[in-house]
């Protein structure tokens, strides 16, 4: 990487959603889930993060999660909605992150479990924040966000190549 500025990757699970909908793909957030997502946005903005690229599963609950996160953070809610991320396993999700624009310094990915939890754990090199690592190991509930620092280009992102800086579960 030519720029020495570290990159940040936020791996996030969607907020609480209704138990049913016309289809799984069309399940909406609960009111509490939307509140949690706005709180997550405020937390992320409080860390000084502002995304350059946002990758969101095409499912309704992930799109609504991102919209509420962006609202809570005061960010533009522009995002790339990816149908493949809806059913992606961790390897596919990692491949999608690798396709992020080379000049993006902060990338946010909003998806589903178990993929988001596994992706965060796969990327963590174990050299980051110990408390955050312990919290991450304890589970990845709805509206969980892992913030990782990446030294390499997105295209070169590999397993255990990022440091976990923070982990947070938003509950409004």
UniProtKB/TrEMBL annotation:
<dbReference type="InterPro" id="IPR013078">
    <property type="entry name" value="His_Pase_superF_clade-1"/>
</dbReference>
<feature type="compositionally biased region" description="Basic and acidic residues">
    <location>
        <begin position="15"/>
        <end position="33"/>
    </location>
</feature>
<dbReference type="InterPro" id="IPR029033">
    <property type="entry name" value="His_PPase_superfam"/>
</dbReference>
<keyword id="KW-0378">Hydrolase</keyword>
<protein>
    <submittedName>
        <fullName>Histidine phosphatase family protein</fullName>
    </submittedName>
</protein>
<dbReference type="InterPro" id="IPR051021">
    <property type="entry name" value="Mito_Ser/Thr_phosphatase"/>
</dbReference>
<feature type="region of interest" description="Disordered">
    <location>
        <begin position="14"/>
        <end position="33"/>
    </location>
</feature>
<dbReference type="Pfam" id="PF00300">
    <property type="entry name" value="His_Phos_1"/>
</dbReference>
């Amino acid at each position: 990487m030519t720029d020495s500025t570290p990159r940040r990757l936020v791996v996030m699970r969607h907020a609480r959603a209704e138990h049913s909908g016309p289809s799984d793909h069309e399940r909406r957030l609960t009111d509490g889930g939307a509140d949690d997502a706005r709180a997550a946005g405020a937390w992320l903005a409080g860390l000084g993060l502002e995304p350059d690229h946002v990758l969101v599963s095409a499912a309704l609950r992930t799109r609504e999660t991102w919209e509420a996160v962006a609202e809570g953070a005061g960010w533009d809610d522009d995002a790339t909605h990816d149908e493949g991320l809806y059913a992606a396993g961790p390897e596919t999700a990692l491949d999608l992150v690798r396709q992020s624009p080379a000049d993006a310094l902060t990338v946010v990915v909003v998806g589903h479990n178990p993929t988001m939890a596994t992706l965060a754990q796969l990327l963590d090199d174990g050299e980051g924040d110990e408390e955050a690592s312990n919290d991450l190991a304890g589970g990845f509930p709805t509206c969980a966000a892992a913030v990782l620092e990446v030294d390499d280009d997105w295209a070169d992102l590999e397993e255990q190549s990022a440091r976990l800086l923070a982990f947070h579960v938003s509950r409004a």
